[in-house]
Amino acid sequence: MSSAVSAELAYLSATDALAAFRSRELSPVELLTALLDRTREAEPVVNAVTERLEDEAYAAARESEQRYLGKGGGELRPLEGLPVAAKEEQPMEGRSITDGSLLLKDEIADFTHPVLQRVAEAGGIIHIRTTTPEFCAAAFTQSKLWGITRNPWNPEYSCGGSSGGSGAALAAGYAPLATGSDIGGSIRIPSSFNGIVGFKPPYGRVPAIAPWNLDHFCHDGPMARTVADCALLENTIAGPWPGDVVSLRPKLYLPETFQGAAGAEGLRIALCVNLGGYPLDPEVEANTRAVADALRGAGAIVEEVEIGWTLDMIRQAALAHFGGIMGPDAAKAVEESPDLVNNYIRTFVEKTTGGDLSFLDGLHIEARIYAELGALLERFDAMICPTTAIPALRADDDYTETKVVVDGVELDWYLDMALTLPFNICSRVPVLAVPSGFASNGVPTGVQIVGKTYDDEMVFRVGAALEAVRPWAYTAGRRPAL
User: Fold this and answer.
1) DSSP run (H or E) holding 151
2) Which CATH number is 380's domain given?
3) For residue 310, is it within any domain?
4) Is the Cβ–Cβ distance between 235 and 199 less than 8 Å?
């Protein structure tokens, strides 16, 4: 296979790959080879992979190849032969489960996450596992265990976190699909920084594992380079699971195809630029407004709105929540092994423990936050807003001392640059994160499409319309210069 052909296959969409498999123009083995070649080429710069499962992946690809040839028995499955990158946080039986921490470097999982089970049962091939920050507790991806994962578009910048390895792998052409999880923006921040598509499902739509399935901020979800591919993976992993009491019945199926630009016709869409109190980088704001203009051009009725939130209100709710769940868990690690944990974990503990607000106080604030959003969304089909206030964080900084400055405003904590936390607080709303353009530093920017509670189909409809009228990098043939 020539290097030019291999490079082009690395950015083939999942839906196009399935069509090529069915027509026998491409085999799963050929696609896997192209992706692994691309991984070996770019990985010295990107550093997004914790483990390659090459032997198992090739065995599965050969089995899928036989299915497409009508040999060996077995019907074609929804993801038949598609390579999928898996976030290392999601356990695979018999394999490492470190959460990016030296404290867990020898831990081996004794079960497989339901999301990864469903990928395999659908014919997907998990060929690589991807990096996270320690305990998935940062909006960048670096750790003492794995080093720094960089943004394929500009390696001086971060790929985001905590599903940063999955986001970077998609951007770099390692896989057409990837899994992620999101407790404060961990799917959506990497989606913005890497110029990809990520979905934070509403709480309970995709099963999770105990005890985190009981944390309403927590969501496992799909990541991809196109809206259709993201929907394909979401349809695979969603649905009730006997191990998760909050997993929803019946299973929701998203449409296999969307209406494209016509899907925006007549929709009422709210544009909320700063979510009440977030300062915003001018380039991020300009790209967000360009998205709104594109939807207007497609026939949507877009109205700019304000919401009665403040950044302090959002921060208080989040810190009360994390202070009751993640904070004490991280504090135990810092106390027992202070030299092994990353500095940003110590900062996370300082921020989330010892505060004056109880978990119950936080719930009261959460209720006020949703009351504002619920009333606003009652008037609209969906809302769009930026994903992050800045194009990206620096890759080599852990932001334990550095202050993020946005349009002249110094933030109290670097995480205040993410406009994602409100929708973990309002956890039943679906949010599709899609690209909005590029900043002058070469890094992508993004917007969130927020729907009414459990109205998943609408955010995909809006995303597909936007993709049709304002194609982003990968659909327009633009690639990182790695």
Assistant:
1) none
2) 3.90.1300.10
3) yes
4) no
Domain of residue 283: give its range: 3-469
Q: How far is CA 274 from CA 282, 340, 372, in A?
A: 11, 38, 14
Inter-helix orientation angle 227-237/456-469, to 10°? 160
Q: Is residue 475 one of the residues assigned to a domain?
A: no
- 3-state class percentages of the chain: helix first, strand second, coil last, to nearest 5: 40, 15, 45
- 141 domain residue, yes or no: yes
Per residue in 221-233, pLDDT tens?
A: 999 999 999 999 9
The rounded distance, in Å, linking the Cα atoms of 215 and 325 is 8
pLDDT, mean over the chain: 97
Q: Give the tens place of pLDDT for each residue, 350-360.
A: 999 988 999 99
Q: Into how many domains does the chain fold?
A: 1
Q: Are 317 and 362 in contact (CB under 8 A)?
A: yes
The answer, yes or no, to whether residue 363 has pLDDT greater than 80, is yes
3-state secondary structure of 15: helix
**Residues 346 and 334: beta-carbon distance below 8 Å:** yes
Assess contact for 416 and 310: CB atoms under 8 A.
no
The structure tokens listed for 388 are 């992050």
Please name the helix (run of DSSP H) or strand (run of DSSP E) that holds residue 437, with its range, or none: strand 431-438
Find, among 471, 458, 474, 475, the residue nearest to 300 by Cα: 458
In which band, very low, low, confident or very high, does the pLDDT at 414 lie, cut at 50, 70 and 90? very high
pLDDT digit string, tens, across residues 231-245: 999 999 999 999 999
Half-sphere exposure of 462 (CA within 13 A, CB side): 35
What sign does the dihedral 121-241-222-22 (CA atoms) show? positive
The pLDDT of residue 1 is 61
Residue 218 is inside which H or E element, if any? Answer: none
pLDDT at 2 over 70: no
Does residue 327 sit in helix, strand or coil?
Answer: helix
Whether the pTM exceeds 0.90: the reply is yes
Type and span of the H or E element at 1: none
Helix (H, G, I), strand (E, B) or coil at 404: coil
pLDDT tier for residue 101 given thresholds of 50, 70 and 90:
very high
Q: Name, in order, each residue with C-beta under 8 angstroms of 345's C-beta and a sequence gap of 6 or more.
A: 134, 135, 137, 330, 333, 334
The pLDDT value given to residue 4: 64
Q: Please give the helix or strand (H or E) that residue 431 lies within, else none.
A: strand 431-438
Question: Does residue 478 form part of some domain?
Answer: no
